[in-house]
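User: These chains co-purify. Model them together.
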Amino acid sequence: MAEFFQYVIGGLAIGSVYGLVALGFVLIFKSTDVFNFAQGDLLMVGGYLLFTMVATLSLPLVPAMLAVLAAGAVLGVVLQAVVFRSMIGRPLLTVVMVTIALSLVLKAVMQIIYGPQERTLPSTLPNDSIAFLGLRVSSLDLLVMAITAVCVLAFALFFRRSKLGLQMRATAESVEASVLSGIDANKVFLVAFGIGTATAALGGVLMGNLQVISPQLSALGLLAFPAAVIGGLTSIPGAVVGGLTIGVIQQLATGYISGAAANVVVYGVLMAVLLLRPYGLFGSPTVERV
Amino acid sequence: MRFASRFGVLLSAAVLATGMAACGSDEGGGDSASSGGGNTATPREGVTKDTIKLGLIYDQTGPQTVAQTPWAHGFLTQINKANDEGGINGRKIEILDEDDKGEVPVGIAAYKKLVSQTPVVGIAGINGSSIQEAALPLIKKDKMPLIGPQSTVKGGFIPLHETIFYVIPPYSDQADVIMKYMAERTGKPSPKVAIFRLTASSGIEVGELITRRVQDAGGEIVADEEMDVTATSADAHAQKIVSAKPDWILVHSSPTMAAALLKSMQKLNATIPLISTFAAGGPTAYDAVPKRFGEQYEYTAPTTPSDIDVPGTQQLVADAEKYGYGEEAANSSFVVGYLSGLVAVEGLKKAGPDLNRETYVKALESIQNLDTGGISEPITYGPGDRAGISATRPYKFNYDTKKFEAIGEFADYADAITNEYAGG
Amino acid sequence: MARMRTSYRQEMRVLSSRARVGWLLLGIAALLYLPSVLENQAIFGYGLTNTQLLGVGLPQVNYALIAIMAAVALNLLVGYTGLLSLGHAAFFSVGAITAAVLDVQNDLPFPLVILGAGLAGAAVGAFFGLPSLRLRGLYLLLSTFALHFIALYVFREYQNRNFGFAGISYESPTIFGFTFDTETRWYFLLLGLSAVALLTSRNLLKMREGRSLVAIRDHDVAAGALGVPVGLQRIKAFALTSFMTSAVGALYVYYLGTTTFEAYSLEFVINYFAIIIIGGMGSLLGSVLGALVWILLPSALQTFATSVSPDTALIGPLLNDYQGQTVSMLLGLTVILIMIFKPGGLNSFWLDIKRGVSKWPYSS
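Assistant: Joint model of the three components:
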């Protein structure tokens, strides 16, 4: 029984990262209708940037992490302005294709700049092993979960209370109506991308602490999609819950069946959700326009 | 109708123009053998009076690039060095490199291209075990020399492929040394062993080899964990391994996955001895965790890391700096590539002025006791022997001096090697 | 355009004008001569360097032909019927498994194997199509995404149990004693099959079946109101696509001689999506152009890369040390540019040329 909870704890930790990536993904999708295949690559960029800040520029860890978030946001804004603004209103697949191409470009650029080696952070957030009720929890895992929780809270407050958040929610409902109401939709899109990319960068920063920084990190993005769907493609807290769920399922499947089976189980669950409740656990059933 | 005829005019004009341009740019082409109109194509096997073409196939943009690009850079260092020293018998070496993206069809297409379309006298690389396996029948049919791949596959040794010259020992030799060393290190001749491996051909191969040896020694395999390449956390695997309470853990994976395993062990506060094949050697795993956990980790390799000062490694570091790969000199993949390059160049030298694929193979086979300055045991091939090196020894990392240290000499472990693949 | 069709018969004809017949004959002649040009690297006795041939060789052309057939199949489902499906790699793998079971394990003759692969594919495809009865658009895409991983797992288990990790090997196929073991022979086989695939698809699209698929894409409720059995046609679209794809998948593994489950990755699927999107969705010409560009462009780029000396500013050292990555980056940037400026893909580019040339000097 203890091992079951041990798996769960490990799952919650990695699931928090999935949740963050899914969160950014859903935010971008909901606000701008862009299905961003490059979300995982943005995470990878965040990881590498953190390495540069800490190892090359010798910044202390926490300011470096914040700097990466800022850089991520800037990158997102630039991407929206340069690439995705002209994609507004285009069919889904065209936009997906652009994000796929973007993913290729990001991977290639990172490899050219950083070379092929994996990078390890010279120092990470504390990773002590804490004994707790017969289980072992790492302080780093707890930190990751805490940071994610803070993020979700911050988002909730932002969307409910702030003017910009309200504008974003309005634009997500209907772009035309919000423009008619005087909302600057372009600004909303820029902000959405900026925040979405910053969250991915945050995921990268956390992964840089949890694991080694390598081009493989972009594979995390692939699990963001099931996470977002299970949570509900239109629900931001749902995305995080979806991420946690996927993380736990993955660890349990790896533990009780095998590493290879884990992916299949995750996607099996995705199938089930899609067939039974396609709008996810937290999404609202949408009325299909005829 | 209108379009068709107009388009016809345009098309004919375009063809004529290209034809004229082609006529004129004959001299400009980088790889034509003679000048003037009506030249012949590049000679069939990539050798002209002043160039030798060698092919280089490796994963540049796929999942294994992290290990394979340093390998390629090590190889290129030797080639650049040879060219700077005046080339080989008056010819300069030109490298045609191809990206196999870690995918079998791309690798096979790249190989076929180097056989006849842009022919080369020999190929280095094809490091991915799946791609190598797929290419074996083609290599046999084309009698194409393949030099120094970064990984070995069983199918290359059994049955022995005459034209493949490995520069590292097969996994059976590594498994032998691992068994002997770990018995000494843990004091348990019949150990309980857990295996942690990646999902690739070599993972299964290593798993089988170790399993058999452990069982023959009276021990048992208590866990066999296969980690998916796309997974980013080894927590569940580590949990299963630790709860099985093994005497030691065998690791065969990429350095990144080994680091993930160590990090998970750290989370579980577990200190169990680990030994890895050379695939997961190098600084990455050690940088990832603090001393208490990292010092449990050791790896075997046929090459010596650049921290250990022998004439060969000093030369390697100097060469790496000279050609812009200074950062990668400590990478064990770089060292293997360096040796692959050394073998390739030596073979070319020995083949002499009459160079084609057949003479190249004969020349490579004649390499005896090629001195690597202490980086590895001297490289030897011979009829029926394509393994080059069979000696392996364990290494560890000293966190206090921040340097790698060898555990013993290559010769200390020579008696453990059973030559199971009969490659010598 | 200046072409008016005055009868249904004329609409159905493959060659609608005499000029077209002329082009067709010229095209056939060129295609028949092509292998000789590529293998001997000479045209009418005049030698060509590798760079002039854009680094293209017969293996790449064969690979492109296979891609054309697979792209046409995918376009039928995604472009013409509007059903977003990521199952392409899964269908390829069905072809590979069927070929393994029928040929390697049971020694059936080659044409039967291909047919069997197609039928197996159709069955699996129909199954993949079931979610399309309930799901649309993005959700359908995700459900096929999930099925992809499940199919891959099945293949992997099959391979490990019966063939081991190294992969499944296939022998060169023979038809009536004629063995396909050289690039040139494969070229003619694949060329013939591609022509059949293209012709069949074109005719299908002009028939009632094909038009009903397009109707479903454009407005499924209206189509239903007009008497199109929407659900059934969706399943049929899946079955048809996967029949073709599976058969191509079997051809593919025979051509390569070997396969392993690692080959059927998500990237594989994404490559084909790239092909039909760049080429132009809902267009057969688009499938052909997209396949040619996607397969041949990287090797063309790589060939130019090798002829650039390392001393050239900026590009030189990049190409020397990181050739694969630079090519990849350039390819990605090209796609982004195409998508921004010409989302209809190469096909729309071609249509623009046609329009421009036809209307000249009044093209605006």
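Chain A touches chain B through 45 residues (CB under 8 Å).
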